[in-house]
Specification:
By secondary structure, this protein is an alpha+beta fold. The protein is about 30% helix and about 35% strand. Strands 3, 4, 5, 6, 9, 10, 11 and 12 form an eight-stranded antiparallel β-sheet that branches. The protein has a three-stranded antiparallel β-sheet with strand order 1-2-13. Strand 4 and strand 5 form a beta hairpin. The two termini are about 40 Å apart.
Length: about 180
Amino acid sequence: MRILIVTSLLLYVLVSCNKSNIVDKKLCKEYNIEQYKFCIPNNWVNKENTKYDSKNFLFVNKGDSIVISSGVTNIIDDPIVVDNEKEKQTLLDFSNGELSSKDIVIYKNKDFDTSHSTYLKNYYYYDKINNIDVLLIFPKKQEGTIGAIFNKETRGNKLSIYCNNPSIETQQTIKRILETVKIR
């Protein structure tokens, strides 16, 4: 009798898990780039784009866009940091309108700011997702980039997934997308 109950319970759990996977597949579509596969929610429109040296996807929804690229993509913010207001103004004048005041940061305490990355818009940290090395990127404030670079520190194909200045809803979507990335 005990074996029958345990077997029934195990069968119920397996069937329940299988049903949840079917529901997930109905809510998202699986895509492949190089050796990676990932799942994008169905309410995001795919605007596939191919470059010479990499394959890219652009997914759009409600004013936000998520970029997914197989090539080397530099999504790490690298602000221009100067020592004073005069130097900042000189750069703005010299840039002929290509830079805005937001692009240039003035050191408050050069040693402290550099060692603590206070002038960066985003937080960066290394982790693993589905046993793949990944550099995760999250905005410090409302403006910034959320995303990840998979296999950043290794040779071979990399995968970048990111969105600039996303809404709260899009931030949650990207986190769910990152959890689906796997190597085929």
